[in-house]
Amino acid sequence: MTSPEAAAFEQWLAEATRGLPQPLAKDVRTELEAHFEDAVEDYLTAGRSPAAARTAALADLGDAETVRHMLHKVHLSRDERLIAWITWLVPRLWQHRAVIATALFGLLALSVVVADHRHWIAYRGHPDPLTPLAFGFVLLSLLLERRLTTWSYPAAGYLLSGIWPWLFFEGFERLGGPFWDIVAPLVLPGATFLIWGISGLRTLRRTAGRRGMAIAWLLVGLLLATKLATTAVQLRDGALVFSLSALSATEIRVNAPWVLYLIVMSLAPVAIGLRAAQRDGLAAVLIPMGCQYAFFVGIADPTYHLTFYDAWQPSRTLHTVEALVTYLPALMTFLIAPLWMLRTPSRQGRTTASLVPSGTTLILTHILSAIGLAHTHQAYTAATWLSSGLESLLYLLPILLAIVLYNRFGQDEAILAHSVDNTAPALADPNRNVTART
């Protein structure tokens, strides 16, 4: 069996001669081995043990990285050094591609929102600039990894909902007619989500236990009840009014298509993410989170009153709050949550990475809105906070449902190395990566 000292020397040689042309690397390696053996002999003669002699001789050789730079400077031309540096850099970037790609998408998404936040807030016939970006990252994942990976999940989740308005603005709107103007925007995405969702639910039937299914149905029922409550509970002149007429059979029939559409569009991404959860565990929550972001900024539209009053009575405070309320969801959904998720190995940590950014988004959004609307007709009251709490539940419940369902797949610890950096096996100690993960 190779001794630890011999393995350490082999690792040192590999690092010191990396990037050198093969014939040169062989000659340099032979020379360094000779120097090493001479030093070992000297230390043995001085009375050192074999292990201590090899350790001291290795220390005398110096830092492998420093030696490598000296060898490159002496033996390689400038162009050869550049090629050697690139061949060293590319594999290391590839090892950490999950974190790099996640951060890149998050920063690009945030920059798009920051650069275009006025159009983003108004969203009046303006093509969604995030959809092409999300599509590009999903396509890149499929090309590089042959499948969707954790770093593409936020983009895939956003694309599930963001692609429909983009398609209608860019293509279907030109067709005109009642079907393409009214029916298609609801039927096409709803039907597509329903089909994908049913496919995901078949996975759930095989994996979720009785307790998991009971909690899932409870959350689904709570989501339906919350949606009906938000229909019946209305804000009138700063006061909360419960309108029984909104729950009448006639009103329910009128509102049923829209309510069912929202429910399907909220729950289907959770079901779609089940396939990803089988492989990546709780990291798949990033898919429904990305989808919920699109609903939050598009349907809940937290900037609606801020935009209205800023246009009616322009104010620096209103404009600043309006921008921050637009930036905050993108920052938390596309940058903070995914990076947190990738860097956290435990199931509890990944649950926190799902809930804390979402909760922070909802709480700070309303706090900022309350500051911006303080001296307007829409100033926040106790009733406003209660109403906002109900609306926030509609955003959080699908994420909670995803956490409950995806928690059935106990792979989070096992996939940490794969989902974060796909690091190569340790050269010297086969237990090194395991120790790092624990």
Protein topology:
Elements: H1 4-16, H2 22-45, H3 50-61, H4 64-75, H5 78-95, H6 97-115, H7 117-122, H8 130-145, H9 153-170, H10 177-207, H11 210-232, E1 233-236, E2 239-242, H12 249-280, H13 286-300, H14 304-312, H15 316-343, H16 347-372, H17 382-406, H18 416-420, H19 432-437
Antiparallel strand pairs: 1-2
Q: Can you walk me through this structure?
A:
With 438 residues, this protein is mostly helical. The protein folds into two domains: 4-90, no CATH class; 97-420, no CATH class. The chain is built from 19 helices and two strands. The chain has helices at 4-16, 22-45, 50-61, 64-75, 78-95, 97-115, 117-122, 130-145, 153-170, 177-207, 210-232, 249-280, 286-300, 304-312, 316-343, 347-372, 382-406, 416-420, 432-437; strands spanning 233-236, 239-242. A two-stranded antiparallel sheet has the order 1-2. The protein is elongated. The two termini are 27 Å apart. 30% of the residues are buried.
Task: Please describe the structure with a list of short key phrases separated by commas or semicolons.
two-stranded antiparallel sheet; 19 helices; 77% helix; mainly alpha; 2 domains
Short description:
By secondary structure, the protein is mainly alpha-helical. It has helices spanning 4-16, 22-45, 50-61, 64-75, 78-95, 97-115, 117-122, 130-145, 153-170, 177-207, 210-232, 249-280, 286-300, 304-312, 316-343, 347-372, 382-406, 416-420, 432-437; strands at 233-236, 239-242. Helix 6 packs antiparallel against helix 8 and helix 15 (316-343) packs antiparallel against helix 16 (347-372).
